[in-house]
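#dry-run=false #mode=assembly
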Amino acid sequence: MKEGESPIAVRGLTKSFPGVRAVDGLTFSVERGEIFGLVGPDGAGKTTTMRMLAGVLTPEAGEVRVAGCDLVKDPEGAKQRVSYMPQRFGLYEELTVDENIRFYARLFQVKGKACEERAARLLAGAGMSEFRGRLAGKLSGGMKQKLGLVCALIHTPEVILLDEPTNGVDPVSRREFWAILYSLLGEGVSILTTTSYLDEAERCHRIALLHEGRLLFCDTPAALKANFAGQVLSIVTGDPRPVASLLEGRPGVGSVMVVGDGLHVVVDDPARVAQLKNELAAAGVTASIEAVAPTVEDLFVEAVRRGKG
Amino acid sequence: MRAMLSRLRHMLVKEFIQVLRDKRTRFLLLGPPVIQMVVFGYAATLEIKHVPMAVLDYDQSQASRELVSRFEGSRYFDVRYRLTDRRQVADLIDRGEVTMAVEIDAGFARLLGKGETAHAQVIVDASNSNTALVGLGYLNEVAGSYAREYQLASLSRTAPLAAGGLPTIVLDKRPWYNTDMSSQWFFVPGVIGNLMLVIVMTLTAVSVVREREIGTLEQIMVTPIRRSEFILGKTIPFFLIGGLDATLISAVGTFWFKVPLRGSVWVLALGTVLFLLGALGIGLFISTVSATQQQAMVTSFFFIMPAIIFSGFGSPISSMPTFLQYLTLLNPMRYFQTVLRSVYLKGVGIDVLWPQMAGMAAIGIFMLSVSVLRFHKSLE
Ligand SMILES: Nc1ncnc2c1ncn2[C@@H]1O[C@H](COP(=O)(O)OP(=O)(O)OP(=O)(O)O)[C@@H](O)[C@H]1O
Ligand SMILES: [Mg+2]
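#status=ok
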């Protein structure tokens, strides 16, 4: 990899399947020591993007450079330096935890003391040290997922691609997951992860929203919130659902989202508060309305709505 | 090179753990083939014994009763019913109670006495044409020998001198290789081939697609493993298991069914190895083109059936339509059947069997290469 080159650099990446353009002209890059989050609704093209970066799917158009290697020309070239954890990680259920780790390690020529030490460290980080002799098929869903991460990381990669790694993992294990990822950043790796948990998106250095194969925006969570065009209102009321349908489509009202026992409503101008209060009062609804800072979720829901409109 | 061998070795370790860790799988690899060999060895036979038959004797003479008692005395027939009415025959045949019915016309003895042609009808259930054909043959033989003896007996009464000079042709049967003409000897080597095909094909047909289904294939693809290493890792275990099964079931054929192994064990082993290459290659090919294990199972089933039918296992290839005969040249099973029977019963060697060996080697190498080329480290 040349000095100053991004470990992951994608330009105009495109991929179609019969009847659907899964990825459409994607351009972004991920730097050393960065966790980059790719977020998007189901079918947005996240997995397809990840597979092309991992070299198991051939791009239709565009450039993909991973760990300094042009994957369009040489899909095998980066494999030793890249780690990819598919959305559904494949473990051999008839093999024990240790045997699974050893198998993946040996395919990467990782062996001896180096392998033992790394496995021990990763397993400890995942809280799985005492399960090393257990058959992978007998692990819980979350533990399988963590074992998948350990197997994927056993060869000390430079670039780590994780496709919804924490899907179905309990909150405690998710914290362990992220602790492992942050500890790897110290080794100078670059991490690209997809997630459907928006609180996880906030932990990424930068996030990008993918929708129908296109990148809607890409920046740090703080910058995205600061540049958000519009105002988020938090409405607390007894029964939020009828209120939501009441507000949808009103002038100046953007996305309306039920959050807990209240609503998040995006409006074009903070001055809309008075108008909404009047409308709710006219409908006989008692509610408190207050302007709040946008969450990542608000950004996405609003961006997807605008993307559709 | 060292890296390649090390990756292959760990592929193999993994495959063997997967196959051998589970006690039930371990049994399934060795138990059923041996059991099936025993069962098929007994069941697969062309010999027809105890064909159930009915007799309808309108003549009720000494001559007709004598003929019937010959049927009864033969081990080929079981005279189950003595009927009095022709209409009963159809019913018995429909219900499968009897396979044949012999109707002896009235006047049988009288015609016979005059030296004229005496008639008897045979009604046969030909829905199993083989049984019908063989049964008719036996029946003819019994009736023919009866007629001959009757003729001799009456001649020796009327013209004792002429009886000695009666011209006859006797075809002296000299069956080579299988002096008893035991069809078990013929079938047992064939069953070895069928079992090998079924075991090896079904195991390999699901091997790659199984990894695709459980998701490990996508994971394997992002490792530096080469596709030939992966395919070899998949092939070698089933090759060894196939070889072990072949040894076991051949031992059953030799020691249990006492089929003589007249040729060299090494020629048999070479033939088995070459055949296994072909079966593995075809199984792998199916596995690399299938999207699900179910697809792979169904596809291999549709291969196995014709592979056995068009191998000469049951009916000889020479009695098939010409274009099908050419098609069988692509069937590795065809060559293996020839090798099995020739080595077992004729005891011939490579000098005779080299074309079959070459055919199997060509098919095996071709299919294995196609599988490696067809398998890409890509999800498309
Ligand atoms: N192998 C394939 N063949 C045909 N269509 C495909 C294939 N893989 C993906 N697609 C289609 O491409 C689009 C993007 O799929 P992709 O799996 O990349 O989405 P995703 O963002 O990962 O979704 P999810 O959050 O559900 O995992 C979808 O419309 C999907 O149906
Ligand atoms: Mg996905």
